[in-house]
Amino acid sequence: HCARVLEDVRQDIDRFLDPSVLKLSGRDGSVGAAAAPLGEAEEALAAGDRTPLELLKLRCAKDSLQSELEDTREETDALMARRERQAGRDMSTITRLTQERDELREDGRTKKRRLSEVEDELRQLQAERSALARSLEDVSERAKRDQEALMREVGDERRRRDAELKGLRQDLAAAELGSRASSLASDGPGSE
Description:
The chain is built from five helices and no strands. The chain is an all-alpha fold. The chain has a domain of 83 residues. The longest helix is centred in the middle third of the chain and has 135 residues. It starts with a helix and ends in a 6-residue tail after the last helix.
């Protein structure tokens, strides 16, 4: 907005310092020019009684305003360049942060998936452990029953063998007794 106002002032000064106005003030130096009829702008200038000193002041003011305008343009250009550089840095930072955010999100999703997989594996291992515990309990019960059955069989077999052995001993004792009796009978008094 300020630049536009300065530009308008500069144009007003340029119109005011139009060469035809300078001719009126006697700066042109040509005799014909001084004798030329006055135009509307020249008449306005003549009516305002502008002196060469006033024109010089206006020219200086114009130059000063143009210099200020140029300085303002340079400052504006420098400011724009700084803002563009800052915008570039900001965009770079935003891009980097966006990339980091996306990487962190992906890392979070990966960790969540891995956690889910580990939880699934843990549930599976717990199920397998429970199945193995039940299987071990079943095997232990079966082994206990088998041991008890085997102990009964061994006890029965021992009793049967003990009974057999007892019967054999009795048979042996009876046979020995019978053999002795026979031997005594054959060695008896009639054989001498």
